[in-house]
Write a structure and sequence with these properties.
The protein is of the alpha/beta class and 443 residues long. Strand 3, helix 1 and strand 4 form a beta-alpha-beta unit. The strands form five sheets. Strands 1-2-8-7-6 form a five-stranded mixed β-sheet, with no helix packed on it. A five-stranded parallel β-sheet has the order 5-4-3-9-20, with helices on one face. A five-stranded parallel β-sheet has the order 11-18-12-13-14, with helices on one face.
Length: 443
């Protein structure tokens, strides 16, 4: 790839790299790309500005990873886009130093990312990528863009594309019939919880026991004195289990394990992902402690409405009428089935990879695995048919191919560096050679 700015015959600039979606991972890519001289880069997002999980932006919530898992520090700690640079610019370095907070508040992380998004070059918010096509004559990706505000259409061309559009709320089949005004996904919790209170909801049920479910449950408990609602929390898992953040287990979220994991057979990777769910689906111990403290206070108050926690209890069916939602549940151990009735439901049932509509025109050029997921190689490049030389990469759509580290913010800078090294054809960013004490493959 030449470093000189190139153009098509019609004078349109050819981008070296186009990113679709501007979440934390493509924002990390943009921050690192800002250091690559001569790289023509742009990123697009249909939203008007950066926004990160606003429906779960509790004032008291912290990140589950430490502040070094910012946009750049684990690869380029001297970058002007580091979290420490953000603190200096906002005159908060000494308060942060004295506070000794290794885990930053979630709202501070969101503000840090928004700060970077406002200043980084090449980011185009309010721009929808309608379609991605392949220009066979030039071996380029052709991006059809629309300005969300005006409807103006245009086309850009790129040698490489990075998909970073994130995931979408997942609702299991058993709950889909009841979703609506009184049944929402946890990702929208803060947009609706005050409405629930205003409408006089007397009973709320939370389904799902990951971090989001735990935070929603805690928020409902803390509002209980004011609202008077009863709260039920159920999970099909054996218990309300913690994230495993022990040191040697955390090595399974390092580049060393990602490389090992990607080299395994697909069926082995799927088995390991099912077994390693506590690396990314559990509840952090601080939140568990806060919940237990709130439940203990509940005992002392005496007059508070009922609270129920139901482990090993899965929803097998649901229906609703104008008055209530009925959940048919089955206990995993006893196999006993019963029906629960609730006024409102919050489905903390996680997120699923989003297969973007814009890739429709090139779907047959892309390598998919046996379950219809991207066939992703070790450098986070998606395999394509041989005649396509233009690069296609993914961010946070590679849990199946790279393991539990894929959604971890701590891997963002590393993955972005891998992509930029591959796109430029040289090691612009030095990648860590030693990231774990364990040797994952002995043969």
């Amino acid at each position: 790839m030449t470093r000189d700015t190139a153009h098509r015959n019609d004078g349109t600039e050819i981008l070296d790299l186009a990113a679709i979606g501007i979440g934390p991972f493509n924002l990390s890519l943009a921050a690192l790309a800002d250091e690559v001289d001569g790289l023509s880069f742009a990123a697009y997002d249909r939203r008007p500005a950066f926004d990160w999980h606003p429906g779960l932006m509790f004032d008291w919530a912290t990140l589950q990873v430490n502040f070094l898992a910012d946009l750049v520090s684990l690869i380029r700690p001297t970058s002007r886009w580091s979290f420490l640079s953000y603190l200096v610019e906002h005159d908060r370095m000494y308060p942060f130093y004295i506070a000794e907070r290794f885990h930053m508040p979630r709202r501070e992380y969101a503000d840090y990312c928004a700060w970077a998004a406002r200043s980084l070059p090449g980011l185009e918010f309010g721009t929808e990528v309608e379609e991605v096509r392949w220009d066979a004559g030039r071996d380029l990706w052709e991006l059809s863009l629309t300005d969300v505000a005006t409807g103006t259409a245009r086309v850009r061309y790129a040698r490489n594309v990075v998909m970073g559009i994130g995931s979408e709320p997942y609702v299991p089949d058993a709950l889909r019939p009841v979703m609506g005004e009184r049944a929402i996904h946890s990702g929208h919790h803060l947009h609706h919880v005050e409405r629930f209170a205003a409408e006089g909801v007397r009973d709320i049920t939370v389904v799902g026991s990951g971090q989001s479910g735990a935070e929603v449950f805690l928020d409902l408990l803390r509002r209980q004195k004011e609202t008077g609602w009863t709260v039920t929390w159920l999970t099909r898992s054996w218990g309300f289990a913690p994230l495993d953040y022990s040191k040697l287990v955390l090595e399974y979220t390092t580049p060393a394990y990602m490389r090992y994991f990607n080299a395994l057979a697909p069926e082995v990777r799927d088995r390991l992902n099912r077994a390693q769910w506590q690396l990314h689906k559990g509840i952090d111990t601080e939140t568990i402690d806060l919940i237990h403290a709130e439940l203990y206070d509940h005992l002392l108050d005496g007059e508070r409405p009922a609270v129920k926690l139901l482990p090993a209890t899965g929803v097998v069916g649901a229906e609703r009428d104008e008055k209530a939602i009925r959940l048919d549940v089955r206990h995993a151990d006893t196999e006993r089935e019963t029906t629960l009735t609730t006024d409102a439901l919050i489905a903390a049932t996680g997120y699923a990879p989003r297969r973007p509509d814009c890739l429709g025109p090139v779907e047959k050029l892309i390598g998919w695995d046996h379950q219809g997921r991207y066939d992703v190689g070790p450098g986070h490049r998606v395999r394509t048919v041989p005649e396509v030389g233009a690069g296609l990469y993914v961010q946070n759509a590679d849990l199946h191919s790279h393991g539990a580290a894929a959604p971890d913010l701590g891997i963002g800078a590393y993955r972005g560096a891998c992509i930029l090294n591959d796109v430029t054809g040289r090691e612009i960013f030095r990648l860590p050679r030693h990231s774990a004490f364990q040797t994952f493959a002995t043969a």
